[in-house]
Design goal:
- This protein is an alpha/beta fold and 194 residues long.
- The protein has one domain: 3-Layer(aba) Sandwich (Rossmann fold).
- It is built from six helices and six strands.
- Strands 1, 2, 3, 4, 5 and 6 form a six-stranded parallel sheet that branches.
- Helix 4 links the parallel strand 4 and strand 5.
- The longest helix is centred in the C-terminal third of the chain and has 27 residues.
- The chain is globular, with a radius of gyration of 16 Å.
- The protein starts with a strand and ends with a helix.
- This is FMN reductase.
- Pfam families: FMN_red (PF03358).
- InterPro entries: Flavoprotein-like_sf, FMN_Rdtase-like_dom, NAD(P)H-dep_reductase.
- It comes from Sinisalibacter aestuarii.
């Protein structure tokens, strides 16, 4: 069986976003494993309009070339890990919009999350899991939460440190998340093929 391809979806497009630092850290952890291939899927690279189609692509295809390009890219992967910034107790608007644009394409694949913020984006990750279920994704149990004091060790508004400052705390969660994603990617890929 081929290694599953996992997209690390960066769910913020702000110029001052923090996501790049933990995304690079997780990508390095994934590169040290031999059971998955992970690459970044950056929402900045897609000029997605605000969802304004007559219906979801689950009901009718999109005619917007930018949306179609995004859907085709999302379809290349066997699973997803979302970098989740918590905005007002939920996910970013740009992430919700991206999920809506490719509703059908995410289906029957696992998803997990790496949340960061005051409470490790726990509330946003919970909302994301509900959105994932509605899009027929398979939310996995494990997640990474970079919260409070640990977050301030690495965030530019805090100590402006490196991810190595939280490596010992976050690595067990990262390994558990990737273990879950790999297992479910194999199971769902086999089920889709059948």
């Amino acid at each position: 069986m081929t290694k599953p391809r996992i997209a690390l979806v960066i769910g913020s497009t702000r110029a001052t976003r923090f996501a790049d630092k933990p995304a690079t850290w997780l990508l390095d952890k994934a590169a040290a494993r031999d059971d998955l291939d992970m690459e970044i899927l950056d929402l900045r690279e897609f000029d997605l309009p605000l969802f304004d189609a007559p219906a979801s692509n689950a009901w009718m295809p999109s005619t917007d070339p930018n949306v179609v390009a995004f859907q085709e890219k999302v379809a290349e992967y066997d699973g997803y890990i979302f970098m989740v910034a918590e905005y007002n107790h939920s996910i970013t608007g740009v992430l919700k919009n991206a999920i809506d644009q490719a509703a059908l394409v995410w289906a029957h694949k696992p998803m997990g999350a790496f949340g960061y913020g005051g409470v490790g984006a726990a509330r946003a990750v919970e909302h994301l899991r509900l959105i994932a279920v509605e899009n027929n994704m398979v939310p996995v149990r494990s997640a990474i939460h970079l919260a409070a004091g640990e977050f301030l060790k690495v965030h530019p508004l805090g100590a402006n440190g490196e991810m190595s400052a939280v490596d010992e705390v976050l690595t067990p969660s990262a390994m558990a998340l990737m273990d879950d994603i790999v297992w479910w990617a194999g199971a769902t890929k086999a089920a889709r093929a059948a």
